[in-house]
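Hey, I'm writing a tutorial for new members on how sequence and structure tokens pair up, and I'd like a real worked example in the thread rather than a made-up one. If someone can provide the structure for the chain below, I'll link this post from the tutorial.
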Amino acid sequence: MAELRPSQTTNPAAMRKEFTITLVKGDDRWRFHWESGLERQLINALSEMASDPNHPLDRFDAAVVSHQINHQIAFGGPAPPDSSIGAC
């Protein structure tokens, strides 16, 4: 299941939000943490991981996390709980 938890940073000058997405797939767990504005870099890193056939994170996993990230970009917050997808 992917989850997104926004929180304010303590640096008021930056006024950036910090986000965390945790993807759980079987016994594997990935936690992605980034500040607002760095979403594209995270999506690029996800793409690289998913392209590696020896990495346990596959293209579907990367798509799930990318969906959550893109929802945050478009709407400024986490995707509704009913749109979260858990991979077993």
